[in-house]
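Task: complex structure prediction.
Instruction: return structure tokens for all chains below.
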Amino acid sequence: MNVRSSLIAGVAAFIAVAASLACSPDNSFQPITYGARPWHPPAGWNQETAGLAPCVTGYYVAIDSCQGCTTPISYALCVGHSFTQCVCGGPAWPGAMCPHSLVCCSNDFPPYNWAEYSIYTGPGWAGLDNAVADAGSCP
Amino acid sequence: MKAGSASDWKLTIYGFAEADFMRDSTRSFNDGLNNGVVAHGQTQAGDNPRLQATIRNSRLGFKAETPEFAGIRSSGVLEFDLFGNQPSINSGGGSPGQPSGTGATTEAAYFNNAGLRVRHAYVKIEDAVVNVLAGQTYYLLGWQNYFFGSSCGFLGLPNELFNRTVQLRLSHTFASNPINFEIAAGAFRPVQRDSALPDAQGGLRLAINHWKGITTPGSGGTDALAASIGVSGMMRWLRVDPYAPLPAQPIPLVGWALAFNALIPIIPAKDGTDRGNALTVTGEFVTGTGDADQYTGMTAGATMPNVYQLPPGTSLIPSGTAKPVDASAAPLVGAPYTPNVDPGLVGFDLKWNLHTINWQTFIVGIQYYLPPRGRVFISGNYSQGKSNNIANYYHPDSTTQPWVNPWGVFQSSRYADGNIFFDVTPAIRTGFSYQWVEQNLTDGTSAHNNRFELTFLYFL
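Output:
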């Protein structure tokens, strides 16, 4: 195949790929931070009924479970105005603070630059699980 | 003017001096209509007219050609106009693309002291196998500028592919007496440098050499071009920082576009001097997503956020800004957020997922050169553009997204113009034009602008 034939084949393939993209769905999950995954609040999650203001992106609630996490504390992340993603606890970063009334192990800290949402203590909150609030349980 | 015509070294100086006078029924636009947003009704900008006079579309170019060496021909082009980057000007009642208030410079300085802008700057190397173009010139998408219509209005017309950028393009033309078949592909400056990948464009074009039509791309450069059809495509990759505390994983998105073009000589001509009673039609259809930058000045008003959300519990007033805590307190503002992508390409939905913005456009143009010599010619263009998803992201109900201004975002537009040109001498051309543009905004209303334009050109 000479240079011209290669160029023709390349251009034709390129246009075919561009055409195929016209039918591609655009609904892939978009993690809000590194390691984030989809999350649905547990039954009884009463952020709204507790009279708390809507959350905004950049705020978290410490939770007791996030799929695939092994750290004692995980974090539900607010995307827009609702908690729809979660992330495992991570290493400390300069200025990092452990969630209110909890004790973090070395790999239990919230994601970088995220802040704690108004204190939520309803179902799903990590503080309801006594084990995670116990510094003595850190490995 | 050509220097050294007796030798193989050539330097061509070309261009034109142009003066335009345009009156608009609204205060929506500067001198270029392009794809700007028409001001909403019941606003100061939408309810009042504007008149402008400008020489900014004047042009000066240099083309150098060197002797063939080892079968390689080379040339270089450097071309400028007077649309250089300039500070914004006064905008009394505000315009969709320009906030109200005092600009950074005066109207007088903006129009009288126009700044130089580079249009083309490239080197072209040609041999029997492949042609290489490196530098800035038209995009390949739409096979610009072969299929441009004729108008007094500054190109690109609304809904018409028209832009230039830096690129590395390979092409080859399979030439024969009856037909030419051209293929081209290239790597282009990425629309978002943080994508870390170049945009890619490619195209195929067929020309029927002995079926020629007279055409004028814009208001100058009248010539005979072969009947032609072209198909071209674009693919690009975006990596947009999420609207969240950073660092965070960039959001990957893909943009693409497909364009189909045609130039049909209805009443053909023998060559560029055979203009009398020549009739030519041009057309373009484009579908794509994340491709708004391929249209001149096209954002449709789709801005990106510039501040982070306010802390939980902060009250918002209907305009989307923070409500003062008390009468004496200044409004709260969020921390600055700097999007790493140009506006108009992507938008957040109400679930805060980021999407590329879809567009479908078409434009048809017709130009007729009156007998006996074509010194007088008339032209008309009609175009439409529509996005089937922009209203999902810039909707009046998006009150939780303070940067959304549904009064200033359009989801579809229509454009029509009619033009008459008269070549007073081979060097002097005058033109008169009426241009109408209507846009449907995402709040469900529509807005339109009427423009009358008078053009004078002197060709170097």
